[in-house]
Structure prediction request, 276 residues.
Amino acid sequence: MLRGPTYGPIGAALAIAPLLQESGRNMSFIFTGKKVLITGASRGIGRSIALGFAAAGADVAICARGADKLAETEGELRRHGGMVHAATCDLADGDAVTRFVAVAAQALGGIDILVNNASGYGLADDEAGWRASIEVDLLASVRASRAALPFMERAGGGAIVYISSIAGVEPSVRTPPYGAVKAALIQYTMTQAAALAAKKIRINAVAPGSIEFPGGVWDVRKHDAPAVYERTLRSIPSGRFGQPGEIANAVLFLASDLASWITGQTLVVDGGQTLT
Prediction:
């Protein structure tokens, strides 16, 4: 697991790559002609990942539950000039997940990269919290990957990136189901990577720390739970919350040819939050 202040080749590559810009063409990565699917991509981290791939020349398919935000992000993606497919999808519905992947693959002409980003944010240690985390964070990711793999095999290879969390690499007292399921994604990343390496399909994960964006969990907590917000902020050595584009940088790197010999790894992106 890639933790700590230096990450060998990963650290070097990220250090020399300019930060992803959500507007304008991203010159750090080239994904021209690549077919990319991102789940849960209408806002926050998922939106930034989708915009990053589009700016780097990829054709992009996205899904989310909320139609309005999805339409906004679709419009932003179309300004980059590549093919775009957007569809509402309840990722807790297994059939809907499989259908989205199949229709998106048809619309784009295949699948090269899949980013499983969606979360049900099952935070409470009750039946509803566990069900949301298992159905969306875990099973939707497994189902989307299973549906995408035949297209990657026909293409001669591909890359899958799971969005885990630092809640999956250390105790998560406030959010037991969320942390447990994010840990399961890290384990599944390693297992799937070992199984698929011979097929030239790389599997990696990114574990974000606390990320703040308008309407996100930490934006809400700033107003509804200021003590928790301030305590968390003080726990981050970098002195600030992360931004969605900083997670997108890591995802694009792991999906790119710069990471061609990296598989089965989880890259923690947290401003040092897990070091304290």
Q: What stands out?
A: The chain has a mean pLDDT of 91. The CA atoms of residues 208 and 269 lie 5 Å apart. The longest strand covers residues 201-208. The chain is about 45% helix and 15% strand.
